[in-house]
Amino acid sequence: MAIIITDECINCGACEPECPNTAIYEGAVDWKYSEGTSLEGNIKLPNGEAVDADAEQEPVSDEFYFIAPDKCTECVGFHEEPQCAAVCPVDCCVPDDAIVETKEELLGKQKFLHN
Length: 115
What we know:
Layout: E1 3-5, E2 24-25, E3 42-44, E4 50-52, E5 66-67, H1 83-87, E6 93-95, H2 103-113
Antiparallel strand pairs: 1-6, 2-5, 3-4
């Protein structure tokens, strides 16, 4: 499952540089699939949706840091545990029960993002 940042976030920014997928963004900031990945141009996401990897996407939150769920692999393929959760001083980086993915799915996503 993807990791989410709860509204208990204090906007310290400790998590952002730790993400190997560049999936963490400051609140109200547009994001791109291409940032921090090997994706470029028109792509087909694992869920079948077609998008332009360089197109700006709407922020998930306007108030605090957020994680783009399509880019979150829980650090599978990079680290033993999600690095955002490991460095968060207020423990607000938690599993998102609404997006459940197996380790194999997360590894597949990691390979998709960094082919």
